[in-house]
Model the fold of this input.
Amino acid sequence: MPRSVNHVASKARRKKTLKQAKGYFGRRKNVWTVSKNAVEKGLTYAYRDRRQKKREFRKLWIIRINAACREQGVSYSQFMGKLASSEMEINRKVLADLAMNDPKGFKAIFDQVMKG
Done:
């Protein structure tokens, strides 16, 4: 009896991986064995970096808030300590955006937090 192979499914699987490798350089885009490894590694990086992106943005926000606070003569930690003890509930993302795009608005919040 001849061997039965589901060529339709295996070809579709390869085609899917080659489609994901579109835009890769050299053999990575059109050779199955090479593209399989490249796509697998790329998906691993994508999974990892979805988590790292959150950390990177938080770091960026802290840097921006710290720079705006230093212009007022106060450190980031002192400002955030006062903010936590005040009744204001404003997150780092919004504070960083204000510090970059609306310095007067940030100064108003800063003054209110530091006096209260």
Remarks:
- The helical segments are 7-20, 32-71, 76-85, 92-101, 103-115.
